[in-house]
Amino acid sequence: MAHENFTRVTEFILTGVSERPDLQIPLFFVFLLIYGLTVTGNLSIITLTSVDSHLQTPMYFFLRHLAIINLGNSTVIAPKMLVNFLVKKHTTSFYECATQLGMFLVFIVAEIFILAVMAYDRYVAICNPLLYMAVVSQRTCFLLVSLTYLYSLSTAIVASSSVFSMSYCSSNVINHFYCDIVPLIALSCSDTSFPETVVFVSASTNLVFSIITVVASYFNIVLSILRIRSSEGRKRAFSTCASHMTAVSVFYGTLLFMYLQPQTNHSMGVDKMASVFYTLVIPMLNPMIYSLRNKDVKAALKRFLTNSCGSFKLM
């Protein structure tokens, strides 16, 4: 049938996490709590690593940007999602949907590469400690982070442009709680081979490159730790990268499950749960992962609260 016989789509309708009316209010409070914890945790990490003199090292510089990325990723998704729990019509305009997808891709690609950069940082710190400050200098840190943001922005522009260059006709119901690539491609009434190829090549290339960086870094880290003679030394070396290993395993595991399965095997229900995990749950968990077992962060928080209380008493 000719495309002219279709009504062109100017807005989309999001089905949300669940279409059951009785679950909307309970889910609203659950995700409001998750988002509240995400904002609190990541803002705390950003603040502490910015103001505390003891946390002015490359590791905490990268952690600050991971927190910025996590906060941005969650904020692109959560506010609109929370509003949709409270209203009957879950509409989003064509351009609002395109903007949300583009911003989501910026932060998700940036997270992929900032985790790889953090793995490299731990590799240099453990395997070449004497050269650490020379190799991971302030200039190098700024360069790595700048390249991460620049690459993620360019990738997001290319991928989102390819998705929204397709024709959308008549059907405008996105079976998701935000504008994501897979359900948008499923709605298109034009040939989807080009955007599917762009998205698959981009996602697989990004994941493979970053995973190789992470695996190579940790392979050398493990070898270096095994060479340490004292058990206390091995324990101390391992503790410096345990949090990052946990965060990497959770994040990459979810993304691999989500994007590198064949299109025909996609189940939207399972994909929604995976999406909830890496867009909302992981950004909430990362501040906890990096702070609960980190003595430096806990000490910085104690100093910050002490100083804040002291300043308040002087007022």
Automatic annotation (TrEMBL):
Keyword Plastid tagged: no
Domain G-protein coupled receptors family 1 profile: 41-290
InterPro entries hit by this protein: GPCR_Rhodpsn (IPR000276), GPCR_Rhodpsn_7TM (IPR017452), Olfact_rcpt (IPR000725)
MF terms in GO: G protein-coupled receptor activity; olfactory receptor activity
Coiled coil: none
Its membrane topology: Multi-pass membrane protein
Compartments in which it is found: Cell membrane; Membrane
GO cellular component: plasma membrane
Free-text function comment from the UniProt entry: Putative odorant or sperm cell receptor.
Protein name (Swiss-Prot/TrEMBL): Olfactory receptor
